[in-house]
Write a structure and sequence with these properties.
The protein has about 260 residues and is mainly beta. It has 2 domains: about 160 residues, Sandwich (Immunoglobulin-like), CATH 2.60.40.3650; about 90 residues, Zincin-like. It contains 4 helices and 19 strands. The strands form 4 sheets. It has a 7-stranded mixed beta sheet. The chain has a 5-stranded mixed beta sheet with strand order 15-16-17-19-18, covered by helices on one side. The longest helix has 19 residues.
Length: about 260
């Protein structure tokens, strides 16, 4: 499954998503949007944020489809082996498990907005990000040339949120030959020497206690808000924190950052 994400009108709050699925061998294919996400043990209705949903073949011809329930679509594919789904998704919330877009950043938790074919969940997922050239990307996804990324399967893909922005602040450290990245998005003044020292301390202690670590590289993605905020969601090779206000990062919020 191949995904492309762009946001040509940042002020609208909508991002544009395209999903291309090849090698379809059925007369009909179902496309599902999750109703769950990591760290939240309840059903959600992410599909309420979708508009302008359409299905086409590789020549641009419209394909007939039916919406079977709140987050499940079925597309007629009897005359094509490739289906392309295009839709808009509304992004309006900065926390550790949501999506947000503006002229300053693109922040996506794919579990919210990326459809999937249940027959292809174990196949590689590819992602292309149509973002400004000077923007950086913070994510646990595997990076390729340009703004292309991938995950080994759908579960790894949707467990990998990403932040894109020109304003990302980044630093890293190593413990036991594993790399740990720290990313800050939003207005703040991180004291990197202090942060790296303390992050390295708790990381080394955790590795000593647990005696192993599941990945070779890990990312801390920190969304900094100008207002009071405290939220966090853990993932396999990354964690997302939402903290605010940013001017308290190195004072009253610092213990929360260390978590």
């Amino acid at each position: 499954m191949k995904y492309s994400i762009s946001f040509p009108k940042p002020a609208s709050g909508f991002i544009e998503i395209k999903l291309e699925i090849k090698d379809i061998n059925f007369d009909k294919v179902q496309l599902q949007l999750p109703s769950w996400r990591p760290g939240r043990y309840e059903l959600s209705n992410f599909a309420r944020n979708i508009r302008s949903w359409k299905a086409i073949d590789k020549k641009g011809n419209n394909l007939n489809f039916e919406k079977l329930n709140k987050d499940l679509w079925e597309v007629e594919t009897s005359n094509t082996d490739t289906v392309i789904i295009e839709y808009d998704y509304y992004t309006d919330s900065i926390d550790a498990g949501n999506c947000y877009s503006s002229d300053e950043q693109l922040y996506v938790n794919p579990i919210h907005c990326c459809l999937y074919d249940p027959n292809k969940m174990d196949e590689t997922c590819e992602l292309f990000l149509d973002i400004p050239k000077n923007w950086k990307v913070a994510t646990g996804l595997k990076k390729h040339r340009g703004n292309k990324y991938s995950a080994s399967n759908y579960h790894r893909f949707v467990d990998s949120p990403f932040i894109c922005s020109a304003g990302l602040q980044h630093n890293s450290y190593k413990v036991a030959n594993r790399k740990f990245n720290i990313w800050f998005q939003g207005e703040c003044k991180p004291e990197w020497n202090r942060i790296i020292r303390d992050f390295r301390k708790f990381t080394a202690y955790q590795l000593k206690v647990m005696k192993s670590f599941p990945v070779d590289e890990f990312h801390f993605l920190v969304q900094i808000t100008p207002y009071k905020k405290y939220h966090g969601v853990e993932h396999l090779n990354n964690t997302v924190l939402a903290l605010g206000p940013g001017y308290d990062l190195m004072t009253s919020l610092y213990k929360e950052l260390l978590g």
